[in-house]
Automatic annotation (TrEMBL):
UniProt keyword annotation of Metal-binding present: yes
Reaction(s) this enzyme catalyzes, per UniProt: N(6)-[(R)-lipoyl]-L-lysyl-[protein] + 2-oxoglutarate + H(+) = N(6)-[(R)-S(8)-succinyldihydrolipoyl]-L-lysyl-[protein] + CO2
Keywords: Calcium, Glycolysis, Magnesium, Metal-binding, Mitochondrion, Oxidoreductase, Thiamine pyrophosphate, Transit peptide
Enzyme Commission numbers on file: 1.2.4.2
One Pfam family in the UniProt entry: Transket_pyr
Top-tier EC class: oxidoreductase
Family matches, as InterPro entries: 2-oxogl_dehyd_N, 2oxoglutarate_DH_E1, DH_E1, KGD_C_sf, ODO-1/KGD_C, THDP-binding, Transketolase-like_Pyr-bd
Organism of derivation: Oreochromis niloticus (Nile tilapia)
Name listed for the protein in its UniProt record: 2-oxoglutarate dehydrogenase-like, mitochondrial
BP GO terms, sorted: glycolytic process; tricarboxylic acid cycle
Gene3D superfamilies (UniProt xref): 3.40.50.12470, 3.40.50.970, Multifunctional 2-oxoglutarate metabolism enzyme, C-terminal domain, TPP helical domain
Amino acid sequence: MSQFRVLAGVLKGGGSPLLRLRAGGLTWRCWAHPKRGCSSRTDPLPAVVSNSSYVEEMYLAWLDDHKNVHKSWDSFFRNIQASGPSGEAGERRPSALLQGRVLSRSLDVAEKVVEDHLAVHTLIRAYQIRGHHVAQLDPLGILDADLDSFVPSDLITTIDKLGLYGLNESDLDRSFQLPHTTFIGGQETTLPLREIIRRLEASYCGHIGVEFMFINNVNQCQWIRQKFETPGIMQFTNAEKRTLLARLIRSTRFEDFLARKWSSEKRFGLEGCEVLIPALKTIIDKSSASGIDSVIMGMPHRGRLNVLANVIRKDLDQIFCQFDPKLEAADEGSGDVKYHLGMYHERINRETDKNITLSLVANPSHLEAVDPVVQGKTKAEQFYRGDTQGKKVMSILMHGDAAFAGQGVVYETFHLSELPSYTTNGTIHVVVNNQIGFTTDPRVARSSPYPTDVARVVNAPIFHVNADDPEAVMYVCRVAAEWRATFNKDVVIDLVCYRRFGHNEMDEPMFTQPLMYKQIHRQEHVLKKYSEKLIAEGVVTLQEFEEEVAKYDKICEEAYTSSKDEKILHIRHWLDSPWPDFFTAQGEPKSMSCLPTGLDEEVLQHIGQIASSVPLEDFKIHPGVSRILRGRADLVKSRQMDWALGEYIAFGSLLKDGIHVRLSGQDVERGTFSHRHHVLHDQEVDKRICVPMNHLWENQASYTVCNSSLSEYGVLGFELGFAMASPNALILWEAQFGDFHNTAQCIIDQFISSGQAKWVRNNGIVLLLPHGMEGMGPEHSSARPERFLQMTKDDPDHIPVYFEVHQLYDCNWIVVNCSTPANYCHVLRRQILLPFRKPLIIFTPKSLLRHPDARSGFDDLAKGTKFKRLIPDEGPAGQSPGQVKRVIFCTGKVYYELAKERKQQNLYRDVAIIRLEQISPFPFDLVSEEVEKYTNAELVWCQEEHKNMGYYDYVRPRFLTVVANKKPIWYVGRDPAAAPATGNKSTHLNELRKFMDTAFNMKGHFIS
């Protein structure tokens, strides 16, 4: 009994010590008291006390009378007795045992039995943890899905490995008690070791590999074990098999049809993973059965046309007419290639007879950029429907293996999955694992064993499956849908497949993967293999199979004929989220006017009072916040507003009108510059918060303000998706500093700037980008306005016929740099009151948040007032324009520095300062009025940014168009530079002093 060890335990409620009994490198946890029970564990623990007396006492008590011990001890010792050498039973009397010989032999037998049982338990756990490493996942049979041919040493692949567990070949036919952490026994509690190993291999080493033992929730692990270990659980009826075959026929024959008709066209077909279509339909069927009625999907280009045709069920003729090179798009915009477009369709799910809405979100070739967009759109639909648990709306994301492993936005999106203001209550991820990325072998494309390892960061179970086993794929999809419905958490399906052709149909993959593609050319199609299997089983006949194939081929041919009658392609047919109550039936705005954005005095006062108070009783706020609220109250009494109050009024007034407002980003609740404080924290009660904005009115819309994860790419994509769901919401994303939007540039370039042109996708998202040269260094100064202005579509050489609303309708986005709180409030309200939606880019201030001159009166927001695209000089210069010698045009914060300098030099009558508040689309009409007003003055554009940055390159040609090239527009500002700002405070001040001197230098030494 020397290897039995009692491990030091703890006293439980003053009772007997909880002991840990060591045997065979594992432990049993038991109570020392004979009436307490014993339960098995498998985590090794260090032996600290060598003492078997407790076990011997327990054993002696049991031999004297089995009722002396707990029933679990009784079962334990009975098993020992049954396993001992024959002929000893008659000697097992207490008197004989106490003499030592039988006791010693019995305890030796007990030790061996316990060790063997615990060894078997360890073996079972080894398969649960590492069985996926030896699963038969690659349909080609040439690669290891985990990039490693090594077989874990603790899996029994040969008889000699039994020795690792202290077992041998003779033990294969011994029966062992099964632990409660496995379901391989079904209704049986014991199994021979040989059968245990066979069932473990069937569960974990076949065509399905399951990664789940890293999940730190026992119930979830047990749920997964039950789904994959229970004998005979993966069964399909003949009807289900026929449905699966029919779906596989549609998936395969669709690709074959396109290949025949357009052999030289890129289509990014699904060949090699045709099982994706029945997989998605199985997920949707199972989810529909659990109550889901809206599914939002995102995917890369491979297989998109097939998904549109056979999952979303877009009309085939509309897909086929996309291949006609002579077609011209009927709607505005450039359009996009067919394998980037999205779709929205409401139909009946034939398996459940329930209505279901399917959306596929359009996205560019930035493969994973759509992930957070889909999540945001899903969250919005759940929010507007009150679906807090995700029981009605869900998302499915499809990925390629190389992109899933390689693109950081995947990680960012996963880390949003369980944040309160971002969770979609579980997403089903389907990875189309081609085992290649374009031409790059996975062994040089990732460092992780699997492309799916990133999902482990949120404890998402990962189901690897051989895509050439359709029934295994269908089962995994069922389990994934059940998991999402049960636990509301993400889950990943890794479809290990291959790519029958190259990256696209014109590519030659033999250049770089000759051995793989030799095997692929020999690989039998999955449809052929599965149809032959079902014919052999008698599920279908050959004639029935051929008839089903002919039936779908006929559907495709008829749609092809019909597609030739389509004279014009309507891109609007491809909308992924239409707003039928917002636009006309033709997709046009219902009017081309904008309501005034001013407000009644009582509304201003009411919002101001709430903004400067705490609506909850007995709520203790920080003294610093108290000072801020008192300052707001003083402003309200004087009918004044600063930047924070102007924003508060904009949000509050929209909430009154039923407009949901959502502000998201890093530290937005307080505000990076500690100016906002939209969420108040009780200083004495943990987690007690107050959002005064939600206490403004009865029956108001809700206000959501949420600090985000430290992400720009993922969070901006999420908010963009949220803004897609409804036009009746103001959705804002604020960068911590404007500079930081550069890590979200992909979303800005691919979705926000060009989204409407490519996909007819109106979107009213607002970007708040803190901007201003204040000596804070190159990474905390510039929001890079030049980038946004370079991508604006208005023509610098053409003055439009219509302005304001019409001009806004024609642009791709709106770029503003407001200099007053009132104008900031107006532009936010205008964003909702416009009859259409355009992205709004606002360069927000930092120092102006508390600048004493950056104030507005309530009169500036009075009824009938509106956003000022340009603010003229209203001082002496504006009143006597004929005397003005110089007109300085500028935008944003630099106005206050120019005004200060003008005051110091007493040049009120000589120099006019005019502010462009809306930079794009350019206010040609208002600029023209100002230029004509100051006929004798020279024109200057002054900016604080470097000459090769900021606004100059955008405004200069437009100013020249206004003056018909009869007058120059001079530049005043910083010289060209590589970095957007200096990090040296002294240098910053010297630069400022230099261009201030230049701006008011009457000798005309300007840079043209």
